[in-house]
Amino acid sequence: MELEIAMTYAQALFGAAKDLDRIDEIKDEINGINDIFSKEKSFYELMTNPALPTEKKKKILAAVFDGRVSTEVMSFMYILLDKGRFFYFGKIVSEYKKLKDNYYGVGKGVIYSVMPLSDDQMKKFEKDASDLLHKNVRLRNEIDTNLIGGVKLLVDGKLIDASLRSRLDDLRRRIQEV
Predict the structure, then answer these.
(1) pLDDT, tens digit, 9 for 90 and up, residues 60-102
(2) Which of 44, 111, 129, 169 could form a disulfide with 37 if both were Cys (CB 3.0 to 4.6 A apart)?
(3) Which domains does the chain carry?
């Protein structure tokens, strides 16, 4: 339910941003606002407090953000307040970023390895994954001490397991089948 709500509002905002040809600018604005909410928890709690009247919340938002963000983003935040959906702001921002990446053909993922990968290795894995998935893939490296060797890639929900552990598990299954 939460994800569905976040996706619905993110799609509406993304559609408007696309129509205005302001996808990146609006992403930057909502991302900046989300950063503020992450750092100033009490401000976010105030905006999501059901005891505070919506009109009061709108005045507070206007005092903080009016003139600093676009009228589209201000209007969007007012709609979230009116509909009682401001609680989902962070998830909406997350979904908006996914829509933006998908629109531009960008995939994000994680590459798991036993040791940190060099910049050259990362570039090669990004290029190989990009070629395989037919999109521009950006990876971040995470260490997984459970791997014996090799790597595991997780991009947009797709797992590419080129780890030594995976190969050994496959070999064990084949031996057991014989």
Answers:
(1) 999 999 999 999 999 999 999 999 999 999 999 999 999 999 9
(2) 44
(3) 2-102 (1.10.520.20), 105-177 (3.40.30)
